[in-house]
Amino acid sequence: MAVALALAGACQCRRQEDAPSRPPPPAPPEAHPSRGVKVPLADGWSAGLGAEQSLTVGPAGRAVLRIDLRPGAAASKPDSTQLARLFAAGLDGGVAPVIAKKDQDGYSWVSFRLALGPPPGARDAGAAGEPALLGAKVLDDDLFLCATLPGASEAEVASAAKACEGISYSVGP
To answer: Which residues on neighbouring strands pair with residue 144, listed in sequence order?
Structure first.
């Protein structure tokens, strides 16, 4: 703290003609401070603040879904095919056949059956593994990205899809 104050004081003491004349960088887009985010939760689920200011939701004691807000990024919303491609590109050995996908009214999601064990072409590839979901929701100019976390059950992934699709803003006082 003292170092920061000392540096701030040194910057303020600099003569005006010594200061570089650069325009200030553009401010990053901000989330709407007067609005809260509403997420419909399944019975027994709760929400909390996770790593990197993400919202995590799930049954008591564990997170099943991570939701990240990208203010001002609505134009970059991926469709379900792009979500599937991004997910597959991030896999390091394993298969993830698409189980279902949806693109409708500013919302896209894709669900997978993630199998890291059997190599491609194995007899039971795609039959084993755990479910996973990626979603993208646009509200106004903002983009919400949703992803289930490892260990989610089929029912939890279905609830996560409903939660992501139901994200909305509420106007605060």
So the answer is: 69, 137
Residue 96 contacts residue 87 (beta carbons within 8 Å): yes
Q: Tell me the whole-structure pTM to 2 decimals.
A: 0.71
d(C-alpha 4, C-alpha 2), whole Å: 5
Instruction: Return the CA Rg of the chain.
Output: 21
64 burial via Cβ count (<10 Å: 0-12, 13-18, 19+)? buried
Residues 127-138 have pLDDT tens digits of 567 899 999 999
Give the Å distances, CA to CA, from 126 to 113, 116, 120, 137, 144: 6, 10, 9, 27, 28
CA atoms of 41 and 91, how far apart (whole Å):
29
Nearest to 84 by CA among 96, 66, 67, 71: 96
